Amino acid sequence: MGRRPHAQDFDAREHLLDVAVALFAERGIANTTVAQIAAASGVTSAMVHYWFQTREKLLDALVEERLAVAFDSIWEPVDAEHDDPLAMTQGIVRRMFDITGKMPWLPSLWLREVINEGGLLRERAFAHIPVQKVAGFGQNIARGRASGQLNAQLEPLLLFNSVLALVMLPQATAKIWQRLNPLASLDRATLERHVVALLTQGMSVAAATSAQVPTPSPLRPKRKPS
Amino acid sequence: MGRRPHAQDFDAREHLLDVAVALFAERGIANTTVAQIAAASGVTSAMVHYWFQTREKLLDALVEERLAVAFDSIWEPVDAEHDDPLAMTQGIVRRMFDITGKMPWLPSLWLREVINEGGLLRERAFAHIPVQKVAGFGQNIARGRASGQLNAQLEPLLLFNSVLALVMLPQATAKIWQRLNPLASLDRATLERHVVALLTQGMSVAAATSAQVPTPSPLRPKRKPS
Fold it and tell me: Which of A168, B81, B91, B131 has the fewest beta carbons under 10 Å from its own?
């Protein structure tokens, strides 16, 4: 108290945040006590209180120093005014995978505590969403659709929801999905290839041979691409 | 007790299940008491116990008589051995929207209590997943990919996860999504058109003009479809 903080102190604080966020993602915030965070970090509960005072302030720190950082790293490079729609979307997907690689707890925490109603980070996280950028993304897609560059059947304001769903859900539900599909590869490279392929092709204008949504008919001949 | 049940009794039981599932989806199972279910149904707690004995048996009934019915209605018509991959996928998407139309509580309950780790219906629901059909779906997609009919970059064992994500996530997160995008239309027709377009086009083989995942370059000329 009163002394100047040492680098080591910040490491201790960072470590506490890392441990807390991993426990929150694994068990849920409501099921995790300060005593458990302290025990898992190898310190006393008093030390957790020293750094974060209250549980609420710990949650504030977590959102500001982890979730908001994740949001910024995904959205900061977006120039929705000038970016090519496909390149913009691919960049967002790539940076989402980058950040979930660095923050492997993110998909679970996002599912449990951010998008889930009653999630304890919902309001706090909402305040950090770069609303202008998200709106710009939708406008960019709308322009691409209007100019004929993108699939005319897409709904511009729903596309970012689709991106989030495709990238985050398989990671957030990896355990149960792996149980259902023991042969499924959920490594980043496979998942990213799949998501990028589905979005890139799905956003593109249909080729002449697949321009219509095919009607379900067992008689439809299977054509090889020419 | 001992008397023959009347049709009216079954209506009362069905009504209790409907009320319970709506409350569970809205507040979470852990946050909903039998007394609250009784009050919202206009009956006494004793009546809830009369029909379902215990809270656990109420959850069993809910999974068997609601969730399992939903799973079956989606998967029953699938003939993974013979269906065309695109038609099969489109049929699953259409039936998912049919069932979420009839069971508007389903996406929230699915997010909260089925896929969420620690969800209280997770194990019960898992037992009702038609594992053979889901595996057959993956094999069907793999055959379509191998024969050149489908996008070669797709991962067959991840595609059903993508379908689920695209259909269920926007509905499960409709409230927060609408708050972020007040102009977004989340009505069934718009959402279904968007999802079907993204999947149908995304699963198809790329046209010559969009065969490669484009490299992000601001110099890439924007081509109108010819």
Answer: B81
* pLDDT given at position A211: 40
Inter-chain touch A180–B206, beta carbons under 8 Å: no
- Taking an 8 Å cut-off on Cβ atoms, the answer to whether B129 and A180 are in contact is yes
CB-based contact (8 Å) between A194 and chain B?
yes
A176-to-A131, A170, A171, B167 alpha-carbon distances in Å:
32, 10, 10, 18
B193 touches chain A (CB under 8 A): yes
**For residue A47, what pLDDT is reported?**
94
How far A66 CA lies from chain B's nearest CA (Å)?
A: 21
CA B221/CA A131 separation, integer angstroms: 29
A112 reaches B (C-beta below 8 A):
yes
Contact A201 B151 (CB under 8 A): yes
**How far is CA B88 from its chain centroid?**
16
A111 touches B116 (CB < 8 A): yes
pLDDT at A10: 66
Q: Does B118 sit within 8 Å of A181, measured CB to CB?
A: no
Please tell me the pTM assigned to this model: 0.87
- Identify all chain A residues contacting B176, using CB atoms and an 8 Å cutoff: 115, 117, 122, 126
* Cross-chain CB nearest to B197 (options A108, A118, A154): A154
Angle at the Cα of B60 from the Cα atoms of B59 and B66, rounded to 5 degrees: 85
Interacting residues of B99 by C-beta distance below 8 A, sequence separation 6+: B70, B73, B74, B106
Report, in this order, helix, strand and coil percent for chain A, each rounded to 5. Answer: 65, 0, 35
Q: Which positions ≥6 away from A181 have C-beta within 8 Å?
A: B134, B135, B138, B157
Scan residues 20-39 of A and list those with Cβ closer than 8 Å to B: 26-28, 31
Residue in A136, A139, A17 with CA at minimum distance from that of residue A68: A17
3-state secondary structure B81-116: CCCCHHHHHHHHHHHHHHHHHHCCCHHHHHHHHHHC
Interval A81-135: pLDDT, tens: 999 999 999 999 999 999 999 999 999 999 999 998 888 999 999 999 999 999 9
Extract the tokens encoding A137.
Answer: 């993304």
